[in-house]
Amino acid sequence: MRLVVLLVVCVFASSGSASKCESNGVWTWLCKNEACVKTEATKGTPAIEVNTCKLTCGRFSSLLPKPSGTVTIGTSTIPFLPSKVQLKSVKCGSASCPSRVKWLVENAFNRLQNTLTNSYLGISKKGKRKTSFFCVKEANQRTVEVNVELGTTHSKLTLGTDESSSLTIGSDDSTVTVEIEANTFFGARHAFESVSQLTMFDEAHDSLQIVDEVAIVGDKPAYPYRGIMLDTSRNFFSVDSILRLITAMSYNKMNTLHWHITDTHSFPIEIPSVPELHKWGSYTPERIYSHEDVKKIMNHGLIHGVRILPEFDQPAHCGEGWQWGPSKGMGNLAVCVKKEPWQKYCVEPPCGQLNPSNMKIYDVLGKIYKTYFDLFLPDIYHAGGDEININCWNTTDEITDYMKEKHGGVSEKHFMDFWGGFLKKSTKKIIEANGNKEIPLILWTSKMTDPKYLNKFLDPKKHIVQIWTAANDKQIPNLARNGFKMIFSTYDTLYLDCGFGNWLTEGNNWCSPYKDWKMLYMNDPVKILKHQNVTMTDAIRKNILGQEAAMWSEQVDEHSSEGKIWPRVSALAERLWSDPSHGWKPAVNRMVTHRERMANRGVQADALQPLWCQQNAGYCYYDPAINKGEHFMI
Amino acid sequence: MRLVVLLVVCVFASSGSASKCESNGVWTWLCKNEACVKTEATKGTPAIEVNTCKLTCGRFSSLLPKPSGTVTIGTSTIPFLPSKVQLKSVKCGSASCPSRVKWLVENAFNRLQNTLTNSYLGISKKGKRKTSFFCVKEANQRTVEVNVELGTTHSKLTLGTDESSSLTIGSDDSTVTVEIEANTFFGARHAFESVSQLTMFDEAHDSLQIVDEVAIVGDKPAYPYRGIMLDTSRNFFSVDSILRLITAMSYNKMNTLHWHITDTHSFPIEIPSVPELHKWGSYTPERIYSHEDVKKIMNHGLIHGVRILPEFDQPAHCGEGWQWGPSKGMGNLAVCVKKEPWQKYCVEPPCGQLNPSNMKIYDVLGKIYKTYFDLFLPDIYHAGGDEININCWNTTDEITDYMKEKHGGVSEKHFMDFWGGFLKKSTKKIIEANGNKEIPLILWTSKMTDPKYLNKFLDPKKHIVQIWTAANDKQIPNLARNGFKMIFSTYDTLYLDCGFGNWLTEGNNWCSPYKDWKMLYMNDPVKILKHQNVTMTDAIRKNILGQEAAMWSEQVDEHSSEGKIWPRVSALAERLWSDPSHGWKPAVNRMVTHRERMANRGVQADALQPLWCQQNAGYCYYDPAINKGEHFMI
């Protein structure tokens, strides 16, 4: 029945003007005081759909993360067809663009056009729009021309990459012109993402709409490292699901996928020079990332502006995949593998740690690093280093014998020296794998990053510390004061796996409760440091590289991960890009709209509110000062 | 590289015997003491894949819910091809089967064959299996013959429907024979589901496997009502997503989809006789369930053994869709719609309640009921009745004027009488809509179900009470003692939306924390009643119709609902079907395998544990008596 009504209205309308294809909805949305207000529609006046209204209502349109530079948003929108969008020019300053850079920009443009086309046709993971009735006449539509100008030809993302851009949209009767200026492809790519967010499919008009006038100048991220960690060892994630994650990250201008590839549970990556690792360590022969897979992921990362940062976690968190040493005459490469009762030897089953007393491990590690460096071409490298259980090593005779001989005992201090020796030897192999060049190493917080040992083993010029401990961890101010670069992944806010059941016993898991998007939004490393009495200096502020949300996978795999990651990480994305000085409330509208945008693009993001709240901005609040009517309930 | 190895092995193997297509995996699983133990494979001996091992290891194979009758499971499996599965006979006792029943059985068979084919080809929502290399020679494969014998020709699910069945699988050199006996199609359908669960795709052998000998006699559910509630008002769910939910329910032998269609937030169903309701009340013209949609859902429910139970929640929880009364000369049909500050007039924004003082509402309600009864052909009907806020009615002059006149005041007692009058009048219209026949009405717990009012307004012969309040609610023993039929949806276990963020303010939502699957598994209504000192009698036990998990949709829509529903409701399914006397531990293995099965079938179920636990049953435990090694962490 609806279909028929739409048809009649549209046929009627198209006999008039092409843009008058009206909805049969009862409601229209009018912008009042930066909010779109739901209002009864007047007959004869075209209704304005809520999301179209939001495009020009509010200082930051529906952009998420909100731009950090100066922002001017027009007051009306223009209907357009995705087929009319063209990449008109790509310039690299006065020089001609290298083909690689041109290819990257064209790729970003193609992605924009695909996004717009899918939005127009209502194509998402859920299938096509039910009523796809397009009453926009192609001939009458304006051309959308995109011009890109790059300041440099850099095409590798590093911590120093300039990701800034400026974006203008202007229009006349025949053309909408989009101008993107950036110093690198990566900045331009972010601007393409902004362009896509300045458009909406308008259900009421059955048309795409773009803001008519836009100027965003000097938009750039507050932090250079904006990450998500994915653990593919506890549960395997298919290549497709990793590609989807990267795509979704690009919608949020997140730039680093920290790939926790291996752990004690499985070793799912192909190491051709030591095939025993993946043969013994993968869950099944089908659950191994081939080099072709990794190249696909790397390429997808590059075109989406996302660094793929590999971690080989060591010397703890090594188990499955390391059992074959004795059978190949290599001795015990790892110890305590699957040792019971696990609670004595590790944090969760199965146990397992490398055996640094066996010199044969360094050759094997060197081969792993070489494979990783050949595949990932890292600018920074993650060397793990968390949760070493002394009791494992201390109950292994060959290790205690070695330690007594080389380190003179088995107290904590000796174990630290033992570990320090491992770090030294393994770092040498890492540098070799990197063509004998130094590379910044990321390490998780641990006793090694404790004030007691920090300066003995680590060097702020060489080591970056990823803080996974709680925000009140006393190590944090010391790291800052000692000039270490820091990535914040404080578990009490940034662990996405918290708040679900305990997978080993009854009750909920160790880091419960669930962390709401507002917590991620408000998680400000500067505040964390100040709260710990650190006097902020420019140097310390600069040493905060950024933050990373961690998707540990004991209780999640590709089937349910998207709803746990999104849209919570979108909130973190705004913190990292825009570093807002205000609270979460001004972000609610954009968060909800952005979440719907991601869902329409096929990301299985969780819902934040009833759709009613999106259509009635400002009504979904809670005011503790108002008496509840609850005691009147019958 | 793996592909090549597999190829070589398989080509080699297929030159010998067809069933010797070997995996290149390092591991095999051997059944020891009802657990599949991961063991290093011996060269020359075909490896056994963990899920194949589980088919014959353990008293209940990988069946979930576990059968309730007598169960015998064979000790080995037979490879087979889905194309060789045939429906050989369908009998209805001595009579010939009506075409409708035959069609239903054939449909259930086709679904089985589709499930097997998809499993064989590795087809799920995630796409086809990466390495699909099938080395099973068709000519050598046994035929799988399915015979179905039904005791009756019933084809409508009611509370009295016999859902029991018996299932045997036997085999000889040429044929695997599956015999299904049931009193109704619904019982037979459950047996088909069991058959599918007695098969696995074995990655190691690249083949489907079925248990060679099975006898399950007298398998039947402990409770006749096994439900999920879906709220499509707070957020809209597409028809496709509802069909997927029904399909997933059928994998768990859940039999009732309680559809909370409307609420204050939106009115998303087409009421042709009162089109204002969906025109004003739907979120967008695209977010309306047409009658074609509902018929599709009803049909899908029937063939999957799932009752579609509609709820029109009244007289509270009515808002959007009811605003047009004054403009059509009907007066205020609802009051307090979107009234502010909402906290005074309802439990969440937007507010809204019907206006029982306006006699015109009964005509409108009658038209809604008529539409519902025509579409849903219900055997039981849900009349809502929760969370009436007196303060809303009490601040509405036309209502207080009416009450003073008709009921003599505006105290709680008078409001109860006012509501009682509404219930009486609306029930009359419901009975009219049902062709002037009585129908059991389900009502949520409220003050009306309180001991103070229960017997004044409600009748155990006519009303079923759905308990949404906490398990310690003092109403519960009184309902039981007064002979009311009960459906348990105690929020402190069965609300699936708990444990996420508060959608109105900071912190987590009202019914936090998250309810783990083990809580649902252990939620036993008999224990709840005993704990409240109810002396259990056969009559009371019989009045426990079952339980229902509720997916309220303030913070979820189709994009993330599957991970919140599954596999938690699978645990509830076993409680409702098998009513186990043991705790959750004996169910862990089957739950984990079942969750993987659902994921492979395209259900985006959440993960319970690392895949490692599935491959190493028994190792993922927690024993509080064991000293942790944590203090040894460095």
Task: Write down the oligomeric state.
Answer: homodimer
| CATH homology-level superfamily of the largest domain in chain A | Glycosidases
Number of strands of chain A: 21
Number of helices of chain A: 21
CATH class of the largest domain in chain A: Alpha Beta
Low-confidence stretches of chain A: 1-20, 124-128
How much strand of chain A?
Answer: 15-25%
CATH architecture of the largest domain in chain A: Alpha-Beta Barrel
Terminal Cα span of chain A:
39 Å
Textual characterization of the structure:
Two copies of one chain form a homodimer. Chain A is built from 21 helices and 21 strands. Chain A is of the alpha/beta class and 634 residues long. The first copy, chain A, has an eight-stranded parallel β-barrel with strand order 12-13-14-17-18-19-20-21, surrounded by four helices. In chain A, strands 3-11-7-8-6-5 form a six-stranded mixed sheet, covered by helices on one side. Chain A has a three-stranded antiparallel sheet with strand order 4-10-9. Chain A is globular. Chains A and B meet through α9, α11, α18 and α21 of A and α9, α11, α18 and α21 of B.
What topology emerges from the helices and strands here?
The structure is a homodimer of 634-residue chains.
Chain A: H1 2-14, E1 27-32, E2 35-40, H2 50-55, E3 70-73, E4 77-80, E5 85-92, H3 99-121, E6 143-150, E7 165-171, E8 175-182, H4 185-197, E9 199-202, E10 207-211, E11 214-219, E12 225-231, H5 239-251, E13 256-260, H6 276-281, H7 291-303, E14 307-314, E15 334-335, E16 353-354, H8 360-376, E17 381-384, H9 390-394, H10 397-406, H11 412-433, E18 441-444, H12 454-457, E19 463-467, H13 475-481, E20 485-488, H14 491-494, H15 517-522, H16 525-531, H17 538-543, E21 544-551, H18 561-565, H19 568-578, H20 588-600, H21 611-615
Parallel strand pairs in A: 5-6, 6-8, 12-13, 12-21, 13-14, 14-17, 17-18, 18-19, 19-20, 20-21
Antiparallel strand pairs in A: 1-2, 3-11, 4-10, 7-8, 7-11, 9-10, 15-16
